[in-house]
Write a sequence for this structure.
């Protein structure tokens, strides 16, 4: 008798109420890594400054915001921190969110040939966008840590919690990115609307200012932004100053999880028609 056993692979779309087919994504983990490595290699190819852009972007943004909010508007950073460091820490959190969201949203359109001709879990394409963002974050954070002794700021135990804030920022950005990428397959207008929305969100998020600096009459408006608690927590970890509001933090974490679940569900409902529409 033949002792060989045949392996049968069953390919099925995710159900309407299934967030993501984790087992299938794990089975294609090598492809996920390949997508991520490709994005990292292509990110700064044929650029004069290369990886230096990873540092220049937060440095320039933090410098401009420090001049506007500190020198012009007269705002002070909590705990008498250097305002440039305060803004830089906020930019680290914002950049990992915005970069992942932007790349995830346009990922399916940029990979039209693969999406329409080859079978694989389509969620791998937007999910792989987080790898390049994490590499950028690692480089920028390393430079940030070098700046701390220059400004006379020491490290605290809170820095160990930085990955927690990054994780929830990624959940929120991937949730919006998954749904945006699915929408963009049918409605290319999304690629023009999304930058406008992110720019508005940028100014409604405490990146260059703390929640305490917001007038009490408007603080509720900034507080309902799920990114507020995450960025405040990330600054608390990186700079070791300020207070961590438990209510705001839990609200932001729950909101990030819900955004990811909702984005995954909506992506799954649209996935089966990608090949026909794209």
């Amino acid at each position: 008798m033949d002792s060989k056993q045949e392996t049968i692979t069953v390919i099925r779309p995710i159900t309407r109420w299934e967030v993501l087919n984790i087992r299938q994504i794990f089975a294609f983990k090598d492809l996920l890594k390949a997508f991520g490595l490709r994005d990292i290699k292509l990110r700064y190819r044929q650029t004069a400054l290369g990886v230096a852009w990873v540092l220049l972007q937060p440095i320039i943004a933090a410098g401009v915001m420090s001049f506007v909010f500190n020198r012009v508007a007269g705002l002070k950073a909590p705990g008498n921190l250097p305002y440039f460091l305060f803004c830089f820490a906020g930019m680290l959190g914002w950049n990992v969110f915005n970069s992942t969201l932007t790349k995830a949203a346009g990922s399916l359109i940029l990979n039209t040939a693969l999406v329409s001709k080859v079978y694989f879990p389509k969620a791998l394409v937007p999910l792989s966008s987080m790898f390049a963002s994490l590499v950028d974050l690692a480089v920028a954070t390393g430079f940030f840590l070098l700046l701390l002794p220059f400004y006379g700021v020491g490290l605290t135990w809170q820095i160990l919690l930085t990955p927690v804030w990054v994780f929830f920022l990624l959940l929120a950005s991937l949730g919006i990115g998954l749904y945006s990428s699915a929408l963009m397959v049918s409605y290319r207008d999304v690629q023009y609307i999304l930058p406008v929305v992110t720019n508005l969100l940028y100014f409604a998020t405490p990146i260059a200012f703390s929640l305490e600096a917001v007038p009490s009459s408007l603080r509720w408006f900034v507080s309902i932004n799920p990114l507020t608690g995450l960025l405040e927590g990330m600054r608390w970890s990186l700079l070791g100053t300020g207070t961590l509001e438990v209510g705001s933090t839990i609200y932001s974490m729950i909101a990030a999880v819900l955004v990811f679940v909702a984005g995954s569900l909506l992506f799954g409902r649209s996935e089966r028609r990608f090949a026909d529409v794209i």
